[in-house]
Amino acid sequence: MDVRVDKYLFAMRIYKTRSIAADACKAGRVTMNGVPLKPSRTFSIGNKFSVRKGPITYTYEILRLSENRLGAKLVPEYLRDITPPDQLELLELSRLSAQAYRDRGTGRPTKKDRRDIEQFIADFDEWDEEEDSE
């Protein structure tokens, strides 16, 4: 039994939808032995393939085949992640750099910030009323 590449990528929860999986294949992000795969190509048991997502390239080995989408707990029975450690390290570095990039205080105010702003406005309104009464 063989399974289409786009169906397998969707069934193994690598991509959210089958059409996104097919688009990734067409864009050359899914490869086997360095050769880009078309969505209609088929996978067999024992095949190894790579998927480029963001800054890293994940590598997988097929243990069993399924055309139907599986629960997340069942995926390890069908697919083994053999991504090299250097790629996983690259992912961790990109996460850390994204966190370090954002300066403290930028973005949405926290609850404490909102309370401080409301208190400041209330104090300012009281001060402004005192000025008007004089």
List its salient traits.
45% helix, Structural Genomics Hypothetical 15.5 Kd Protein In mrcA-pckA Intergenic Region, Chain A, 5 helices, five-stranded antiparallel beta sheet, 134 residues, two-stranded antiparallel sheet, 7 strands, 2 domains, alpha+beta
Describe the model.
The chain has helices spanning 5-11, 18-26, 75-78, 85-101, 111-133, and strands at 3-4, 30-32, 35-36, 42-43, 48-53, 56-62, 79-81. With 134 residues, the chain is of the alpha+beta class. The chain has 2 domains: 3-101, RNA-binding S4 domain (Structural Genomics Hypothetical 15.5 Kd Protein In mrcA-pckA Intergenic Region, Chain A), CATH 3.10.290; 108-134. A hairpin with a 2-residue loop joins strand 5 and strand 6. The longest helix has 23 residues, at 111-133. It starts with a strand and ends with a helix. The mean pLDDT is 87.
Brief digest:
This protein is α+β, with helices and mostly antiparallel strands and 134 residues long.
How many strand units?
7
CATH topology of the largest domain: Structural Genomics Hypothetical 15.5 Kd Protein In mrcA-pckA Intergenic Region, Chain A
How much helix, percentage-wise, in residues?
Answer: 40-55%
Give the CATH architecture of the largest domain: Roll
CATH superfamily of the largest domain: RNA-binding S4 domain
Order of helices and strands: EHHEEEEEHEHH
| Strand order across the largest sheet | 3-2-5-6-7
When the domains are counted, the total is 2
From the N-terminal CA to the C-terminal CA, the straight-line distance is 89 Å
Overall shape: elongated
Mean pLDDT: 87
